[in-house]
Amino acid sequence: MHEGRDSVGQVVGYLQAAHEAGADKVLVDLHQTARSTAELLDLAHRFREELRRS
How far apart are CA 35 and CA 54, in angstroms? Predict the structure, then answer.
């Protein structure tokens, strides 16, 4: 996953599918994707907002 609105939405879709399949925990490591602290915070915010909408 690299920066981009579609990839955030795609990962959120995978998270929803995992939840529906019975997963009670998942790990999303944003540190591997973000190139700076600002980008890390932006990704975290975008994931949070996308998850809240779903």
Answer: 27
Kindly state the tokens that stand for 1: 């996953």
The count of domains in the chain is 1
Give the per-residue pLDDT at 32: 86
How far is 26 from 18, CA to CA, in rounded Å? 8
DSSP classification of residue 46: H
Range of the domain at 47: 5-53
pTM reported for the whole predicted model:
0.71
48: left (phi over 0), alpha (psi -120 to 50) or beta: alpha
Q: Which residues contact 10 (CB under 8 A, 6 or more apart)?
A: 1
What digits encode the pLDDT tens for the residues 14-37?
999 999 999 999 998 888 888 999
